[in-house]
């Protein structure tokens, strides 16, 4: 049952965000008042919000992720064999240094068009990892050996960001110019395509599925694209009987994982967030955002943590919700500015999938923006917020390093310490009281350059092994990596 309208959210202590302008490349931030002035001046930094109707790309706009040439053969020249370099990726005589992680494997990136190509989709399973690579979904074993390949009729253009169990719905290129008009269900453990069908009709001015966003939870997957949206059943890919939004309202995007959330906004300047029952598709609850604002990014679906913004790049803060869809707290962000990784969203259809944030049942972890730190190099902090009160619990920093939350382990946090110009990155742990992180896995200096090259990537730390998988092929002809795996 939908809940009655909630009381208006109390405003945050300081402005903390900005808007997402459709049709423009953006880097998602949660910003402070000072940085907001730069936005107004056209500084080229776009904040965490969605606003207005998406605009179609200008003529000549390059569509990434549609190249479907065969993957190159492996080092032996035989298609389908393991490709790339194995072992520690070092020059002859460059021994593994004390304290460095072992490189399990490094899979080089295949060729790509000159303007690059998006390659979304990466999942870690027991005994193998699975990567979507243009028109293929490929499983690699613990040492990089290729285990199976599923070939599609077009390039993968959208995939869920959150873990989905053993079966995942992906979207790939459809007929004609529809770059994202087909769906398929892939069995990640057995390398099988369980079904393959057209996505629900676009009913958009261009008649295709531009800017597809995809989220999955339980038996449902939510799709949102330029001019439309749908909820489909994971079992067969057909439309699920999800309750339609009122006339004059539209879906801004979905987020999946622990639950399936649907953000929406309406012509009367109202907006909200709905939780869909993943078995029936019906609305479990509706949270109505205060007038003039809407959900810009969904950081977590369990517990629910979202950021709000208006159509003019003004933040409405970050709100935590209860399991019943009522306001639990509004985070007291103070005067600090925050900078999670939310990638680019050309059409304002992807509200989920932000990286560089993490949440436990009672704590939300958020990275601050960078600061010079007295000449030691770019530095940021991780702040932990109590979701019951909205107050900050602790901070953690390393001078001259950038930290990004990865996941929660017990009562502590796992984070990624980014590489610098001279030093490789690390996986670190932060205790329940914050403070300086403890190194769990120091990556090799010999792979630092390849690590830096994987700037837009999925990063997963699981059972002591750390994976970095690229989201995008540069297409520059450089020797770039696509997947790297490390262990102690």
From TrEMBL:
Gene3D superfamilies: YVTN repeat-like/Quinoprotein amine dehydrogenase. Residues 1-29, 48-99 are annotated as: Disordered. The keyword Transmembrane applies. SUPFAM superfamilies: YVTN repeat-like/Quinoprotein amine dehydrogenase. Keywords: Membrane, Transmembrane, Transmembrane helix. Residues 1-14 have a biased composition (Pro residues). InterPro entries: Quino_amine_DH_bsu (IPR011044), TAT_signal (IPR006311), WD40/YVTN_repeat-like_dom_sf (IPR015943). Coiled coil: none annotated. Residues 48-65, 74-84 have a biased composition (Low complexity). Residues 85-99 have a biased composition (Basic and acidic residues). The chain crosses the membrane at residues 29-49. This is PQQ-binding-like beta-propeller repeat protein.
